Every structure is written in C-alpha cells, then in structure tokens.
Amino acid sequence: MKKSDLLYIWVLISSYFAGVVAYTLSLFLFYNEKMISWGQLFTWTAPTFFTVNLLLFLLSIFLLKLMKKYFFWTQTILFAIVAIIPVYIIPILSGFFNFASIAYPISQEGFPFYIFFLISSLMSSYGIWIAQKQFNHRSFLIFSFVIIVVFIILIALN
Questions:
Q1: Left if phi > 0, otherwise alpha if psi is -120 to 50, otherwise beta: which for 156?
Q2: Which end of the chain is more exposed for a tag (fewer CB within 10 A), N or C?
Q3: What is the pTM of this model?
Q4: CA-CA distances (angstroms) from residue 97 to 34, 92, 94, 158?
C-alpha cells in the first residue's frame, strides 16, 4: 500500500470522526442534550458514510474532472450539496422503512445528521484536495489529531 493510499484512508477516518464530533456538539449546543448511545450513532452513520458518501465523493470528483471544473471550491461546494443525500438514508437505517419528508434535514431529528455529514464532507474535501495535489499535509494531520482528541474527550465526558 502506498503512502498516498494511507493518507486517503486517514482522510476518510478523520472526516468521519469530525462528523461525530459535530453531531455531538450540535446536540449539546442546539438542543441541550447529551449523547446517549454511541453504538446507535455509529450504526446509523458509519455504513452510510463509508459507502454512500464515499461513492458520492468519487462520483463528484469524476464529474468535476470530466467537465474540467475541478477546483477546491467547486469540489467543496459539490461535497456540501451531496451531504444532503445521506441524511435522507438515516431514517431507513434507524428502522423507519419509509422515505423521510423533504424537510427532514432541517427537522429537529435530521439537523444534527445534516451537520454530521456537512462537516465530514468539508473535512473530506480539504483532505482529498491536499492528497491529490500532493501539498504538505501537516496542517491536515494536525487538525485531524485535534478532532480525534476532542472525540476522545467527548466520549470521556459522556
């Protein structure tokens, strides 16, 4: 496995944990609630993030390169738009075998999930851009380390 492959894997893992941190903080800041069941959150979000989101990211990059519009901001905007799609999959994974209403991402139940996928998409965009352009990835590694430390602190506090 090449070093660049490991960087892409790290980008996805740290982006997922950035989403978990964002979800937990949005629950606390907007609804004054604590995270009760980490297992349920991982069950609902991990399969969606590592399958649907990953495929949507790859498709987005492919389309942008095909149209010759592959820039950091176009990738980031497209990733942020694509973040809405996995939010609609969460009710199905949580046991509600029907499609969510059109307003689900802005509902009280769906908004933290939208924050989750939006933040993880933004971090993925930054990490993928650094990996593809072969820039110095020290800033991303420091930021992802901070995210992991905050995640560990959130688990310890709950």
A1: alpha
A2: N
A3: 0.89
A4: 26, 5, 8, 30
